[in-house]
Each structure stands twice: as C-alpha cells, then as structure tokens.
Specification:
about 200 residues, seven-stranded mixed sheet, 9 strands
C-alpha cells in the first residue's frame, strides 16, 4: 500500500540502491485521480489525447493543477524532515515541471549545497516504461567541481517518481564521482506512480 513516506530499493525489480521517497499523492489509473495526476498525464502525452485536439493546458485538470501548484510545492517542502540534507539536486528533465518544487524545497534548506549542475543527461534516450535502467545509466552524466565525499545526506527532487530508474542511475553516477556509499538518499516528488507496487524495506 502506498504511503507518503516509503523506504524502498530502486530501480523497481533490480534493487540496487536504498532510498526514501516522500510524495503527496499516488497516481493509479484505476483509482480516482488527484489534481497532481496532471504531472503524469503531461509526461505520457495522455493529456494531449484527452484534450481531443484542443490545447491540453486548457483542460479542467490542467487549470486546477496550475491554480494549486504553489500550494503543492509548499506542502511537499513542509512534509520533509527538519534536518537539512548536505546536498540537494533537481533531477534533470526535458520538462520544466520540477523547478517549482525544487525552488520551494531549496528555500527551506537554503544551507544545503545545490548539486544540480553536477548531473545531466546526454539526451539520447527518454525515460519511460520501455527504457531500461542500463539505457538511462548510459545517458546519465556526472561531472563538476564539488567534493561529494562530505555529502552524508542527499535530497533529489523530481516531478514524478515511477520506476526509480532515473534516481538509481543518478545515484550510481554520483557514487562513481565520490558520493559515499553510505550516504542517505531521499527523493521528494509530488506524485508517485502506482505506489502499491513498492514494498517498504
């Protein structure tokens, strides 16, 4: 059963890294959807299909999401533990849906080192159900001048948490660049997709 805080092994089915995920809502197509479902429906282009040729951003779901997204961002920031992480990063994406959540969390943990610039994607693959962890890992880069050896706790911010493949690839690359193997890894994401598939560890 999905919970707002879950400690799990990622990526799903491979179980390489242990992370704790904080999220506001679960997205399960079989259940009634929250306004945060907008994030998943945009990501999968489903909102475009549902719009039936009209502007997807003019749908009722999009309008309701955008009306409340500042509150969602504040709620996500406030649900995180009070102890500040040593480092924080915004998960790289072709969409700009994560930034509002990252900015809200960044304000709360202003003393955390912003490691966003250390990670990136080559852009040769897109995350999706048909994309493997190995493909995402090969597309993920980590480079920068930061000393990661002192990062005992890292917080990643993403718009949607699904299979955990992107997070796992980032953690693998960061470990390879000096992040301690025993660092605590937390993920803050407003929406978790089908959280019922996860088993807490």
């Amino acid at each position: 059963m999905w919970k707002p805080k879950m400690t799990i092994q990622v990526p799903h089915g491979v179980n390489i890294h242990r992370v704790t995920v904080y999220s506001l809502a679960d997205h399960d197509p079989a259940k009634k959807q929250s306004r945060l479902a907008y994030l998943q429906l945009v990501r999968t282009s489903t909102l475009t299909i549902l719009a039936g040729g009209d502007d997807p951003e003019s749908t009722q779901l999009a309008l309701e999401y955008h009306a409340d997204k500042l509150q969602f961002a504040e709620d996500l920031a406030n649900m995180l533990p009070s102890g500040p992480p040593a480092g924080i990063l915004c998960v790289p994406s072709t969409r700009d849906l994560t930034r509002i959540y990252f900015d809200s969390i960044r304000r709360r943990f202003a003393e955390a080192l912003d490691l966003t610039s250390t990670v990136g994607r080559k852009g040769k693959v897109k995350g999706g159900e048909s994309t493997s962890y190995d493909e995402i890992l090969a597309d993920t880069t980590c480079a920068g001048s930061f000393n990661l050896r002192n990062i005992g706790a890292l917080l990643m911010v993403d718009d949607v948490f699904d299979s955990g493949r992107t997070v796992a690839a980032l953690v693998t690359r960061l470990h390879g660049s000096g992040l301690p193997q025993d660092s605590q890894i937390d993920v803050a994401s407003p929406l978790c997709v089908s959280g019922d598939k996860w088993q807490s560890v």
